[in-house]
Structures are given as structure tokens and as C-alpha cells.
Design brief:
Shape: globular
Number of domains: 2
Number of helices: 21
Structural class: alpha+beta
Mean pLDDT: 93
Low-confidence stretches: 197-209
Strand content: 15-25%
Largest sheet: 5 strands, mixed
CATH topology of the largest domain: Uridine Diphospho-n-acetylenolpyruvylglucosamine Reductase, domain 3
CATH architecture of the largest domain: 2-Layer Sandwich
Bound molecules: flavin-adenine dinucleotide, FE2/S2 (inorganic) cluster
Strand order of the largest sheet: 2-1-5-3-4
Number of strands: 18
Distance between the termini: 65 Å
């Protein structure tokens, strides 16, 4: 049991509970903040969304996350805002987001509404230009079963019109939103408090000092926890004694940096970097041009705000999307070991990502090890790198793939170089497809000849299809998956060689 100091709406509170308790249970239980709803408890509906205020890269930000998949310990020293907190200080008891919902009849039973309000408030707080596509992306993890989405869209359009002139500078934007009563005055207080003692003393546990690292690591409930978006779905009510190591709270697991070692240059990405941070990183965008276009193919905004890269790998799903991308980027992982007093981040071994998966959900990781980081070998000239990701799933958003694949290569002297192709959903583990890689490596690449490129695409697709032996399950039959492998390989060529006429040749 820990005593966690958390700013809940406008008050700092000392909450006595286990760090691994799902935050929703404390929010609706001990704190009695019932506007936060519990729908699916699996990250699918967004009804439980709350805002978390925290400093990231020196900047205060407020992000919406699903509280059903959030470890309470993640809130230590942070600002939790629920719907009750949003209305503090408003004249008339409604924020402009709520007013837009009311005026456009965007709420009927109201069960989903708090989640939509929180998600849209978080969208307004992001220092970006407002548009309909961005707003709809912000609520792609929120489900409404009775109002229908037309009224919600109207409310969103109203907000875009009302707030189109918000400043883009992050601090000025938060201030403007407090002035407009979109965010409560406690946001300003938190910004001031963040530089003071309150946060430094956020672990206010005088009576029950934390266990030593050694005691914790050897306790039966010890689990390394990333965002919890896989863990809590499998363990919605963790047992007493559950003692997570909250890797997202450790800055040393969150860095993204270039690293030169033994004549090789790597982009090293901390295992606790979230999916959102991964796609937002300037270094990753520079190393893999265009990768950001695939962000929305992963889960929803709410999940991306929590889920980590390391968690995606260790969960070892055969259709893990970030893993598929990293396999095509020829990634390795850096694994640190436990020592007496905790993890020794200088005592590491590296493992090629493709060799990390040993069988269905079996991985090359001992219980005494943690993934510290992921390394992508740097391209000498990243602008020459071509990258594509494709995923076949029943729904466009919030769905796990039946088959996924990524490809990365360079074009050098009109030839394919350094080709890596991943395939998920066709074997017990995420895989790379050597047959297709070998066929493409060194092949001539006349980028402006659509006919030749289409023929090549078909040969690569046939080779990949012929080399896989998927199984049938609820997400697709064996035959469907093989056909998808073929089609998704063609899709890579269509996406990457858009201007070559390859699409017209393949689909006349
Ligand atoms: C609604 C919903 C939609 C989803 N959609 C997608 C999707 O589209 N694509 C997709 O690929 N996945 C999806 N997922 C699955 C999940 O979000 C991802 O796999 C995510 O990346 C897991 O990361 P996490 O940090 O939340 O993992 P956690 O749940 O924290 O951890 C997962 C496992 O990894 C272990 N672990 C975590 N970090 C480390 C580490 N650094 N070292 C050692 N062990 C570690 C944990 O102990 C646990 O066993 C979805 C999940 C939900 C709930
Ligand atoms: S209760 Fe549905 S996402 Fe949390
Ligand atoms: S208003 Fe009833 S579920 Fe959305």
C-alpha cells in the first residue's frame, strides 16, 4: 500500500492505495467522482476518459486517457481532471464543449458524454490548428450507442468555429483555454505548483516507506508495467499484492536519441515511449520519412496516449502493429538485467527483434530482465528510405489486424537495397518474410516504369503468399489471410510508387 499525492481537480489529495489499482476504481470509489463512467473496462468505449496534466519535455500538457487501463501510481505528482473538475469556475456550470453538446443535441442517455467532453477538451488543448479530421481523430476511441454521430459532428464544427484563433504556443494556449472556461483555473495553479515542493514530495508515504527495490522485485506480484493497455485487459481486477514497476514514470526509459557505437549509428527509443510520442518524435520522423501517416491505424487516441512501444513487443501478439513496423526497420532491442538494488541499465544485452520471438507468446526475456530500449539502425541518408505499413482489419479504427505488414528499403543506383519486410497474423509470432526480401534485394527499380514495377510487385506478393502457412481463426480463414498477404504486398508498391502508374497497371 502506498500513499500517493495527486492533484484531483482543484485539491491535492493523499490517496492510500496500491499503485497498481486501476485508477477508475479510486475515481468512482474513494473519490466519489461518478461523472467518469465505466462501460467496457477494456479500453474500447472511452466512457472512463479523464485528463492527466503532466510535464513532458519541459512542457505542461493535458492528455485524455482511459482510466480503466490506468495504474493509479501513474498519477503520482500529476493533475487528474474529471468532468466535475472541468466545470469548476464556469459561469452557468457548463464549459463551452458541454454547451456545444447541449445546443446541438449531441447527448441523449448521456452515458458516453463525459468521455467525449474529456477527449474534445484534450484535443482543444493540443497546440495544433483545429480541423474536423483532427477532432474526429481525437474521439476515435469514444463510442456512442444512442445519439448517433451526426449531432456530435455538429457540436465539433461549432467548437472549431468558436476556437479557430487559439494560440499555437503551448503555454499561451492553456491560458487562453482557462480564460475561455474550457479548462478550469486549477490548470494555472498546477503549472505554478509544478516547480515547487508539492511535486517533489509527491510520494508522501511517511508511515509506509516503499519496499526496497530488491524486496519488490522478488515479491510474487512484481510486474513491469508499460501503459497497461494489454495488462489490464487481461487482469481487470489485479490481485492483492500486485506490485507494478511503472516504467512510464522513469525518465531513463523515455529517451529518444541517436547513438554511435562500434562504427554503427542507431536511433535508440526508450521502451516506455508511448505510441503517441513515437509518431510525434521529430527524430523518428526524420529517420523514417512518412511514418506518421500510419499513427491512426493503431488503436485510438486514448490508447495511443498510454500504450508503450516496449509493451507492444513484450505482449508478443502475432499481429502487434508497432512490432511489425520495427521488424521492417531491422530493429534490435536492448535488454537490461536486475541487480541487487534494481535494474542496472548499464548491464545490458542486445537481441535482434526478429530473434526475440520464440513461439506463440514465448519470448527471449527472463523474469529478471526488462526491455530498456529499441534500436533502429540509422540510414546514412534517411531521405532515400521508403517505408510503408498496411493492415487488414474489420473496422478502420480500434481494431486488431487479421494480417499486417511493413516494408522498408532504400533505392540506390536504381536498385532495391537493405530490404526488410515484416508479416503479422500468418504465424504464431510476428515474422519477417525472407522469401520476399531476398527476391527484392538488389532487384532493378525503374521507379518511373509502372509496368515493370507492377510485374515486380506481383512476383514479390506471390512469393510472400506462397511462403506463409497461416491458421484460420475468428479474424480470418487461412485462405483469406494468404490472399491478404498478396494484396497488402501490392498495396505497399501502390503506396510507395504512387507516381509511377503502378496502381493503374495492377488494377486497370
Ligand atoms: C482498445 C485497444 C485497442 C488496441 N489496438 C491495438 C492496435 O491497433 N494495434 C496493436 O498492435 N495493439 C493494439 N492494442 C494492444 C496494446 O495497446 C498494445 O500492445 C500496446 O502497445 C501495449 O503496450 P502497454 O505499454 O500498454 O503494455 P502493458 O499492458 O503495460 O504491458 C504488456 C506486457 O508487456 C510487459 N512489459 C511492458 N513493458 C515492458 C518492458 N519495457 N520490459 C519488459 N516487459 C514489459 C508487461 O509486463 C505485460 O506483460 C490495443 C489495446 C486496446 C485495449
Ligand atoms: S470503460 Fe470503456 S474504455 Fe474504459
Ligand atoms: S448519449 Fe447514450 S451512449 Fe451516447
Amino acid at each position: 500500500m502506498a500513499c500517493l499525492r495527486i492533484k484531483v481537480n482543484n485539491t491535492w489529495q493523499d490517496i492510500r492505495s496500491d499503485e497498481g489499482t486501476p485508477a477508475i476504481d479510486i475515481i468512482r470509489g474513494e473519490l466519489g467522482l461518478m461523472a467518469t463512467k465505466e462501460g467496457c473496462r477494456e479500453g474500447d468505449c472511452g466512457a472512463c476518459a479523464v485528463l492527466i496534466g503532466e510535464y513532458a519535455a519541459g512542457q505542461l500538457r493535458y492528455l485524455a486517457v482511459p482510466s480503466c487501463l490506468l495504474a493509479l501510481g501513474e498519477l503520482k505528482g500529476k493533475h487528474l481532471i474529471t468532468l466535475e473538475g472541468l466545470i469548476e469556475g464556469t459561469s452557468g456550470g457548463l464549459t463551452p464543449v458541454m454547451r456545444a453538446f447541449l445546443d446541438e443535441n449531441a447527448s441523449q442517455c448521456g452515458f458516453c458524454t463525459p468521455g467525449f467532453i474529456i477527449a474534445l477538451t484534450s484535443w482543444l488543448a493540443e497546440p495544433r490548428l483545429l480541423d474536423l479530421a483532427g477532432a474526429l481523430r481525437a474521439i476515435d476511441g469514444n463510442l456512442c450507442r444512442c445519439t448517433g454521430y451526426a449531432a456530435i459532428r455538429r457540436a465539433v464544427r461549432r467548437l472549431i468555429e468558436q476556437f479557430k484563433d487559439l494560440p499555437l504556443e503551448p503555454e499561451a494556449r492553456l491560458n487562453a483555454l482557462v480564460n475561455a472556461q474550457v479548462l478550469p483555473p486549477s490548470v494555472r495553479e498546477f503549472a505554478d505548483e509544478a516547480s515547487t515542493q508539492v511535486l517533489l514530495n509527491s510520494n508522501n508515504d511517511k508511515e509506509n516507506p516503499e519496499l526496497t527495490p530488491k524486496q519488490r522485485m522478488t515479491s510474487p506480484g512484481f510486474v513491469i508495467l508499460g501503459g497497461g493497455t494489454d495488462y489490464y485487459v487481461k487482469n481487470p481486477e489485479p490481485n492483492d499484492g500486485f506490485s507494478p514497476f511503472l516504467i512510464r514514470m522513469r525518465p531513463e526509459f523515455k529517451e529518444i536519441n541517436y547513438l554511435d557505437e562500434n562504427g554503427q549509428r542507431w536511433l535508440e527509443i526508450g521502451a516506455a515511449v508511448t505510441v503517441r510520442e513515437f509518431f510525434a518524435s521529430e527524430l523518428i520522423r526524420q529517420e523514417v520519412p512518412g511514418i506518421e501517416q500510419f499513427e491512426t491505424m493503431f488503436a485510438s487516441t486514448l490508447i495511443r496516449n498510454l500504450a508503450t512501444i516496449g509493451g507492444n513487443i513484450v505482449n508478443a501478439s502475432p499481429v502487434a502493429d508497432i512490432t511489425a513496423m520495427l521488424l521492417a526497420l531491422n530493429a534490435s532491442i536492448v535488454i537490461a538485467s536486475q541487480i541487487q538494488e534494481g535494474f542496472d541499465l548499464s548491464l545490458t544485452r542486445t537481441c535482434k527483434l526478429e530473434e526475440f520471438f520464440l513461439g506463440y507468446k514465448a519470448i527471449d526475456l527472463k523474469p529478471t530482465e526488462v526491455i530498456k530500449a529499441i534500436r533502429i539502425p540509422s540510414c546514412n541518408d534517411p531521405t532515400a528510405r521508403k517505408f510503408s505499413f498496411e493492415k487488414a482489419s474489420k473496422r478502420k479504427n480500434l481494431d486488431i489486424a487479421a494480417v499486417n505488414t511493413a516494408i522498408s528499403f532504400r533505392i540506390e543506383e536504381q536498385r532495391f537495397k537493405d530490404v526488410h519486410i515484416s508479416l503479422g497474423g500468418v504465424a504464431p509470432t510476428p515474422t519477417v518474410n525472407k522469401a520476399a526480401m531476398e527476391l527484392l534485394e538488389g532487384s532493378s527499380c525503374p521507379v518511373s516504369d509502372g509496368k515493370i514495377m507492377a510485374e515486380l510487385a506481383k512476383r514479390v506478393a506471390s512469393s510472400a503468399e506462397a511462403s506463409v502457412r497461416p491458421i484460420s481463426d475468428v479474424r480470418g480463414s487461412e485462405e483469406y489471410r494468404r490472399r491478404m498477404v498478396y494484396r497488402l504486398m501490392l498495396a505497399h508498391f501502390v503506396r510507395i510508387f504512387e507516381d509511377s502508374g503502378v496502381a493503374e497497371e495492377l488494377f486497370p
